[in-house]
Specification:
With about 150 residues, the chain is α+β, with helices and mostly antiparallel strands. Helix content is about 40%, strand content about 15%. It has a 3-stranded antiparallel beta sheet. Helix 2 runs antiparallel to helix 3.
């Protein structure tokens, strides 16, 4: 009979990290040295933007339901690709905490919401937009790494 008492599993090991680092890759898939740090799922910045987006969704659904109850055809505007991209950029910026130092056209380019928008909205930097968007879609990027024994 096994007399060893097993310690109960600590569920805290499953909690997402407060921050996660995205290493920006170049077109060949190599690390550039530019790192974006994002707020994790439980971070106050993420909670705030998620609440904002949920409120927008609920308001739209309630308007649709009111129209149907009143026997009217729903005439809510469909989101254009440009509006979707702008909303996605806003979400990325809301969760962006910082990035490592970079230069743009020979001068410093600090991490600010305006500078992030310049990069994310510029089609020439679509690679950055795609990587940031994909990173935030995968919560595994915020999984805490267990220490090696």
């Amino acid at each position: 009979m096994d007399t060893e008492t097993k310690k109960p599993f600590d569920i805290a090991a499953l909690a997402a990290a407060d921050e996660g680092d995205l290493h920006i890759l170049d077109g060949a898939g190599k690390k550039t040295g530019w790192v974006w740090t994002f707020a994790g799922p439980g971070h106050t910045a993420t909670i705030a933007i998620d609440r904002e987006q949920s409120a927008r969704y609920i308001a739209r659904e309630q308007a649709k339901e009111r129209a149907q109850v009143n026997g009217k055809k729903w005439k809510g505007g469909d989101e254009t690709p440009e509006e979707l991209r702008e909303r996605t950029i806003g979400y990325i910026i809301a969760r962006l905490l910082r990035w490592t130092d970079i230069e743009l056209e020979g001068g410093p380019f600090p991490c600010t919401p305006d500078n992030a928008r310049k990069i994310l909205a510029d089609p020439r930097y679509g690679l950055v937009f795609d990587q940031a968007n994909e990173f935030l879609r995968d919560e595994k990027d915020f999984t805490k790494r267990s220490a090696k024994p």
